[in-house]
Design goal:
alpha/beta, globular, binds adenosine-5'-diphosphate, binds magnesium ion
């Protein structure tokens, strides 16, 4: 857990034009919001989203920052932003950072698919600012945050009950509002305020009680950040499909799931994506024809080998992997809510909003149901009814712009 240095959160009173750059693990976005005088009103919202091109997962960091700066500058021009005055930018950078100020920090390590040189040990704000200067563009990066903090900020803009932000996308993370007095690692005098957002960096959570399986360990060894981020690898969108594929392969090898021989196609690492896996979970057809179709499309298994019985085993595996993820997230969320006194254990339970963003949560309908089900199990129905799991689209990007606004207003 690390202090995010964010001791202000937007409250809807901010005004002006603000930009954000948001880089996750699959996509990056640039956005512009114009906040009007009317409280909580967004007069204008523009966004462009790009898939991160494959070569940028391994190029030098400078090139990646050039891409971000170029996209921001081109985007701003396209939407008629004149360069007469300097515009504040919120930078949503979803990697572990040792944050030293709202607009400064040191990158600790790379996660997800990234394996670039020039990142670790550098300050992402300075790197983006330098790249922007190369384009001679009038932007100032005023806030550095990760996507969970952005999501919480996005929710706070219109919902004072928002206390926790969660990401369920390519990776996973969570943050929450903490009393400054409880943050032991925060240097004295870092803030005059009473609360600050803490970045749990829960993707890297591990404990003796975390039931990491043999399959998890085997997959871990093939990742750029082997030995770390075990929780993320059991939970998030980048990994779930691959965990399922490995279990299915084991069943083919040890229990002849697809007949006497093992289809070679099953051995291709990362061939089953989480979106494909989620469609299998949601296959409601009597004959599981959709599952057979997905196995044919993604793993190139011939229809003759995808019997009903094989498909139903595959579906059961995908369901288990998805449910495990939702159960682990619910357990950690319940722990966080307990920590901030929002688990109903000390008197009347206050309405609490957990703001959630990310492709896994947004697009996988059954997953949202599993998560609610496990939250109810952990907290009991009465308390769970007061905890709203709020899906906020684009929250991390919007929240980054709002935070740029809040930081500008408070400085
Ligand atoms: P980022 O993490 O880059 O910010 P997103 O929040 O858009 O990106 O999340 C992308 C991730 O969401 C992908 O890695 C993918 O695994 C997951 N995802 C997207 N669509 C689905 C789906 N239909 N079912 C399950 N997971 C999905
Ligand atoms: Mg994201």
């Amino acid at each position: 857990m690390m202090p995010s240095m964010m001791d202000v959160l937007p409250n809807g009173e901010e005004t002006g034009d603000f930009f954000a750059v948001d880089i996750g693990g699959t996509n990056f976005r640039v956005i512009l919001v114009s906040l009007s005088e009317k409280r909580g009103e967004v007069a204008r919202f523009e966004m462009e989203e790009f898939a991160i091109p494959e070569e940028y997962f391994s190029c030098h960091a400078d090139r990646l920052f050039d891409l971000l700066a170029d996209s921001l500058v081109t985007f701003a021009k396209r939407y008629g932003f004149s360069g007469n005055r300097t515009a504040p930018v919120g930078f949503c950078f979803s990697f572990p950072v040792d944050q030293t100020a709202v607009d400064a920090g040191t990158m600790i390590k790379l996660t997800k698919k990234f394996d670039n040189e020039g990142f670790v040990g550098s300050d992402p704000v300075q790197m983006l600012q330098r790249a922007i200067l190369r384009f001679k563009a009038p932007f100032k990066v005023v806030a550095l945050l990760n996507d969970s903090v952005g999501t919480l900020a996005g929710a706070c803009y219109e919902d004072p009950n928002a206390k926790v932000g969660v990401i369920l996308g390519t990776g996973t993370n969570a943050c929450y509002v903490e009393q400054v007095a409880n943050i032991a690692t925060l240097a004295k005098g870092s803030t005059k305020r009473q609360t600050m957002v803490v970045n749990t960096e829960w993707g890297n959570f591990t404990a003796a009680s975390l039931p990491i399986t043999e399959v998890d360990r085997e997959m871990d060894e093939t990742t750029p950040n082997a030995g770390e981020y075990h929780f993320e690898k059991m939970v998030s969108g980048m990994y779930m499909g691959e965990v399922a594929r490995r279990i299915i392969l084991r069943l083919a090898e040890e229990a002849q799931l697809f007949g006497p021989s093992v289809p070679d196609e099953l051995r291709v690492e990362w061939a089953l994506s989480t979106p494909a896996m989620s469609k299998i979970v949601e296959d409601g057809s009597w004959t599981l024809s959709r599952t057979a179709q997905i196995l044919a499309e993604t793993l190139h298994l011939p229809p003759s080998r995808c019997t009903y019985s094989a498909c139903s085993t595959v579906k059961a595996v995908c369901l288990m992997v998805s449910r495990r993820s939702a159960a682990l997230v619910a357990a950690c969320l319940a722990g966080l809510l307990c920590h901030i006194g929002r688990d109903g254990s000390n008197g009347a339970m206050q309405e609490t909003t957990v703001a959630i963003d990310g492709g896994l949560f947004e697009h996988f309908d059954a997953y949202r149901e599993f998560l609610s089900e496990y939250m109810e199990q952990m907290l009991g129905p009465e308390v769970a009814a007061k905890v709203q799991l709020k899906r906020i689209r684009d929250a991390s990007s919007m929240g980054s712009a709002y935070l740029a606004a809040a930081v500008t207003a408070s400085s």
